[in-house]
Structure formats: C-alpha cells, structure tokens
C-alpha cells in the first residue's frame, strides 16, 4: 500500500473510532483492551501534525472527545499520554472554527473508485498524508497500521466536541 493510501486509511480509522465509541461505554472500553499500547494509546501517540495541522486537528479532537466523553478511564489515559496544554490548544482551535463550516477538505477532495484507489488528491493533501504515514511513533514504526482493518473515504465529518454535548 502506498504512503497516501496508508494516510487515508489512518484518517478513515480515526473517523470510524469516533463513531464507534461516541455515547457507547462498551465500545469506549474496547479502546483499552489488549496489551499496551492499546488503541487509545495509539491515538494519543499520533504524529504531532495531527495536533497542529488545521485540517487534521478536528479529526483527532473528534476522536478523543468521542473516546473520552463519559468515560473516566479513557480520559485518564489521554491525560497521562497527552499534555494538557496540547489538549486545550487542540480543543480551542476546533471551538474557534466557524460553526457553519464542517467540511473535511482532505476527504472531500479525494475520490475513491470501486477498487478503493485514490484518483485525485490535491498536492497539499497528498504531501500531508504522505508525511503522516511516514512518521514513526514512539512504540512502533508501523503502529498506525494496526489500528483497524479496512476503510473507504466517506466524506463524513467526525464527531466534534460540539456533538458530544448532551441534548436538552
């Protein structure tokens, strides 16, 4: 699988984790199953670009909020693994984004054919995804491969901190 494909698979995996865990305590617990590093540890150990790039920050923030909302154990893991300053910066930047704009330009600019190969990706997105897929983590140079199996670009935006608010 080429670097771009691995980067897209990682983004789709994060989206899937968001939907899998949001408002579901049993699924949130699954993120802590197994030998360390667990899935929640691997999410916290993503390359710095996920914490700093405006296109990737909402995806990571949505995944972390979905994994931690109402789950003290996951919240504890994230607080141990990621600095509070970095978390606050991540959440503030997502909160300050325009509420009416919910486009994911990386996934929206990507078209997938039946064989799940990328047809068109903008040069900036291509470089970003290649950088993401080439960066090793502290646990394992291939740690992003083991998060989940198969993904297809859906164009859906992950849950954000705003989605996690209780409905009244």
UniProtKB/TrEMBL annotation:
Domain of life: Eukaryota
Signal peptide (residue range): 1-29
Keyword tags: Signal
Region (Disordered): 137-168
Protein name: S phase cyclin A-associated protein in the endoplasmic reticulum
Species per Swiss-Prot/TrEMBL record: Vitis vinifera (Grape)
Biological classification of the source: Eukaryota, Viridiplantae, Streptophyta, Embryophyta, Tracheophyta
């Amino acid at each position: 699988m080429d670097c771009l494909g691995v980067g897209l698979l990682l983004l789709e995996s994060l989206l899937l984790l968001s939907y899998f865990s949001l408002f579901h305590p049993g699924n949130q617990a699954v993120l802590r199953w197994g030998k360390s590093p667990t899935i929640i540890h691997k999410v916290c150990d993503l390359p710095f670009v996920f914490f700093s790039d405006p296109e990737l920050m909402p995806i990571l923030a949505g995944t972390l909020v979905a994994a931690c909302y109402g789950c003290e154990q996951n919240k504890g893991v994230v607080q141990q693994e990621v600095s509070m300053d970095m978390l606050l910066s991540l959440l503030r930047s997502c909160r300050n984004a325009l509420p009416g704009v919910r486009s994911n330009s990386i996934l929206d600019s990507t078209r997938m054919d039946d064989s799940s190969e990328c047809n068109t990706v903008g040069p900036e997105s291509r470089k970003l995804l290649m950088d993401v897929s080439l960066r090793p983590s502290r646990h394992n140079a291939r740690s992003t491969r083991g998060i989940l199996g198969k993904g297809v670009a859906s164009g859906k935006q992950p849950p954000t901190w705003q989605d996690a608010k209780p409905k009244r």
